[in-house]
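Why 6-phospho-beta-glucosidase? Reviewers of the renewal asked for a concrete example.
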Amino acid sequence: MVLSKDFLWGGATAANQCEGAWDRDGKGISVSDICTGGKFGQSKRITPVLEPDTFYPSREAIQHYDRFREDIALFAEMGFKCYRFSIAWARIFPNGDEAQPNEAGLRHYEEVIDECLKYGIEPLITISHYEVPFGLTKKCNAWVSRDMIDYFLNYCRAIFTRYKGKVKYWLTFNEINSASAPMGALLNQGILNDLEHPTEFMNQPDIPQQRYQGLHHMFVASALAVQMAHEIDPNYRVGNMMIYSASYPLTCDPDDVLACQHYNRLYNYYCTDVQARGAYPAFAARMLEEMGVKLDVQPGDAEILKNGTVDFITFSYYMSSCQTAKDIKGGEGNILGGVPNPNLPSSDWGWQIDPKGLRYALNDLYDRYGLPLMVVENGLGAKDVIGADGSINDDYRIDYLRQHIEQMKEAVKDGVDLMGYTPWGCIDLVSASTGEYAKRYGFIYVRRYDDGTGDFARLKKKSFYWYQKVIKTNGEDLA
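Here is what the prediction returned.
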């Protein structure tokens, strides 16, 4: 058997994409709550003032807040060993700067955790997953301000203390390296420079100084959170979470090879070097200087980073790209840049499908950091259709996941220490990049549509039964 007997099979969601109940039980507004729905890169907007008669998908999402027991029971039926979910920061601290947490929010997640434990499912909790409290955006433009470190630690202290003895695995920031791209300033860091006018989601004016200063504050906050977690409960294990964007030189032209090296440093190594090695990499100084960024690093920060390295590394993997020094138009859907690989097919949304890139990613990260790894997002967004007989035959998803699991197993044979696998959107939810229901990832179909129709009923897809078999055989039967 290739995978360890305690391998953590499961699935992943995010609060802002599945919970709904955006203004109930004391919850405050998060940045995700002011994002409208829309087609990728076009009509999805940020509206600092909530607009009437406008579709905000996070307001209702898939009603997981009210239906989590039903959903977790379905996860248990598949055989989940692990459920990765996030806590909505604004449920615990509605504006982000309160002294005391919201008891209703703490109680809700305790119920979710207890429901997981009832079925023997290990909770894997993301502390901040693309939903900074909007109150902190308005107060200090979120992670631009160093004050955010204390607000974040206050939040961490509340949840680390409340869930002691029930949770083992935590992740500090979802896809922290998304802030290496302009879109990350809003989604990940809550930075919004115009609080008066709607802004196109992918076209917010970019200020690299703010993004990278924000990342520094996040690095310090993450390192202090790791130390705090270990002090509160020595059994806590805290990981980072990054996007791994596999990238290859488009040609063997040395300039393309250098362009690819720069891309990997910018997106795959910059953040993870700090969180896993405890210091900025040597290439950071020139990279930041060339972007016109000068970090404000306070006395003691270097020591904090050194003493707060993560216990394990997690990442999302969806696609790969190619890099070139030539001026060639990029591929649709590749949100981190690059050009299409002529050797690979693409999904309905233009994301190139590259299973072997996952093996490459696992080996690359393990060779560089030597820490246990976990793939906490991977999956295929597709337009699923309910057949006349009520069945949902998503063989394309099964094929995608099968190929990626096969390559995951090859990486383990290569010597990689792999803890688990939680495919993204184990149940259909709202897409973060497009605000659509139509872009479906789940093993479970949610009968809700972009025109506002649908009753939120849960339906099992063909992949539900396939993944059930995969888990039961610990990845041995992938047919």
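The mean pLDDT is 95. This is the kind of structural detail the renewal will allow us to pursue systematically.
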